[in-house]
Amino acid sequence: MAELLFREDPYLASCEATVVSVQDNVVELDRTVFYPLGGGQLGDTGRIGGWRVIDTRKGNESVLHMLEPGHAASPGVKVEIQIDWERRHRLMRLHTALHLLGAVVKAPVTGGRIGDDKAHLDFDIEMEKLVKDEIEARLNELTSSSLETKAKWITDAELDARPELVKTMSVAPPRGEGRVRLLEIPGVDLQACGGTHVRNTSEIGRLAVARIRSEGKRNKRVTLTFA
Ligand SMILES: [Zn+2]
Fold it and tell me: What was the pLDDT predicted at 173?
């Protein structure tokens, strides 16, 4: 099993690693700082040695780094790896912003996605209850309150006993290892989440509600961007 360094330290942008396997353009490493697509968050891009990583996906107990064609990676080679930090940090800010949005809008979350420069959650709620200016004001209150975020691990059994910790119906927390990670924004939100988050809500900066739109009976979509 590969060591997934982003779980303990999402601020680690680079490290040394050893190539474990290469199949066409897909490289697996013994350890990685690359977050793979999942939980609504895009996979990281960056570099492995001198080669460009264009996307990152989940593998079987590992991470699949998709290289640009024409690379010369081979098993056993030691490499310096590096994510595109500016992009990842934006994803971390938007991801943490969605935790705030999920707390501001009091309704079940039916879906969500974090992109390069915008992110959305879908809610099972009536459209008239979603007021753009109110949501925006509350979000910016929370980002400017400088709240520290905290991550901790609990067992699958503890999670089963507390179903309220799984907030996003369509995005189940990563399981199968006997433990899951919780992300807490004290006084605001507590939920199981495997993504990458900023340390403090002040790092998110000012947010804007770009759009509120109906995407179906149980999906009222609120899209955020940086203001
Ligand atoms: Zn999260």
Answer: 64
